[in-house]
Amino acid sequence: MTASWNRIPQVEHAAEVELAHRGRPLPPGTPRPLLAHGLGRSYGDVCLNPGATLLHTPGLDRFVAFDAATGRITAEAGLSLDALLRFAVPRGWFPPVVPGTRFVTLGGAVANDVHGKNHHQAGSFGDHVLGLTLRRSNGQALEVTREASPDWFAATVGGLGLTGLIETVTLQLMPVRSGWMRAWSQRFDSLDAFWELNAQAEREWPYTVAWIDCLNPGPNGRVGRGIYGAARHAATAPVRGDYRERRRSIPLDPPVSLVNRLTLRAFNHIYYRQPVHATPRAVHHQPWLFPLDAIRHWNRIYGHQGFYQYQCVLPPHAARDGVQALLDAIAASGQGSFLAVLKTFGDRPAPGMLSFPRPGATLALDFPEKGRDTERLFARLDAIVQEAGGALYPAKDARMPAEVFRQGFPGWEAFAEYVDPEFSSGFWRRVTA
Amino acid sequence: MNPMNNVVLFGATSAIATAVARELVDTGARLFCVARDGDALEALLADLRVRADDPEGNRILGARADLADIDGHAALWQQAQEALGEVDSVLLAWGTLPDQAACNASVDATLQAIHVNGTSAIALLGRIAPDFEARGRGVIAAIGSVAGDRGRQSNYAYGTAKGMLAIYLQGLRNRLFFSGVDVVTLKPGFVRTPMTEGLNRAGALWAEPETVARGIVRAMRRGRDVAYLPGKWWVIMTIIRLIPEYLFKRLKL
To answer: Which of B11, B59, B229, B232 makes the best surface tag, with the fewest CB within 10 Å?
Structure first.
């Protein structure tokens, strides 16, 4: 049974087809609608198509062309960022935007217009896509480029895989000197301190992110203490040379979730007490950009019942009060999050009609599935987000009400014109029904 | 260790052979790839050329051919040798997984399955072997299957072809031993490839093509005689081979 990373919802598909070659007609004779599914790292039902057909894309993992002089690369949409990095980094190139895991496909990165810790400088993934090929159910293969077909481009970037099957992606890579970074980190004891630190750091550092302890209050009595980190690509590798990721794995599903009030409080406390390094030092890009990738199957710690991600963005004018209100509401509910991540987006307008990144601050949290308690908490958080004029991230959603989606993505009706009549997803049916 | 610098891959667009090709490209090998489907071959060559930093196609070469057409083998082998100069290794990797029920209903389907998976490979081996024998070095490898170790009702047309291929390779190994050529029989277990799509592929017995490919390259370099891939299949197949026939015929495997 194919599921998404958080294992909610658990659904059955009528058919699942593994695509092996680009340029072929969409598989005939399987129940419509269709939906492409890459490595299943999104949360919720944006990558699921209950009762219909999933097209698995990881077999579409070929490079098509690479220009070593300009860093332009074309590859099939099922190629993972992991494979791209293994190719590009030794040649002095890097994807200009990477999300928090490298186990996503190019197609998934386009369809969700993913962002990274450098959004304030680099924008989102779609900002670096030069073109793509899109297979439509009417048999057409559209060559979509930013210049020649801006409408299809804006619909497909961030288009949740609904405009057709993305077969290839052309990406502009950025030059790097090595696979290493220079990074520093610092504790802050309140959200006010975060905002101050962030304003300074963002001016100089391309990658920034903060982790928030959402269970233990700071000295001002309010939740909001945390650890701030910033990094940039390093000019040289340190003398000690190669990096080898120490991989661990959660081997099986624990019978009950290992995430509960006690372990969360302890984890958050210990995490806050980790050593910080105020002076920049050499860190390999893997642990800095993809810390959880070192733990294979980390989603298993929540047990088979799964968990939720809640990621929202709040516009700049409402960000300070809104983030504090969200954290207060979570603290009051007694439900905490392992990894509460806070970061600010830059002002660059997003390339896609349904792109999630927009000016403001984004907060991402994960919560164990606790039935009604979780629902009540999310309703409270939704109200804060809606009042602030914010939005929730479709790629991390298994439950947002349709009106929250429509308010956060007012372009959805214009976008719907571009949806392929034979493509859909569980998410799309849920928020447009 | 056998050098693998100039390698011919027959059936190069199969998932396992593609993974082998990527593995070899990273070691700097020159490749000649043969496949039946022209579009898939072009896509593979483009992929390998990017990985090899070879946009001009000097290192990564190929030709389209239907390997079931044994009349074309001699010219094809000639072409591969001319393209690469000296060929130090070949891998035979084409095949299909026939529908046993269809084979039960049709003698023609059975013979066709045996031709594609067995006889045609033997025909090509017969063309290649004298050149290796004359040169006195190199490695010839072919992908058989654990299915060739024992006939089972669920896929014995395929098993017959792969079993026949294994016996032929055994004889060829014996013959070429005296001229210093290694002949490697590769026996993958269950592999997640398009060939096995539609089967239930959950569980610990299923391997990824990349894992099997690493095992293939290792076995060819070391000149192994027979390599089960992954290695645990040697244990499984030893047990399966030891089951007495009077019991085995009653099993539903």
So the answer is: B232
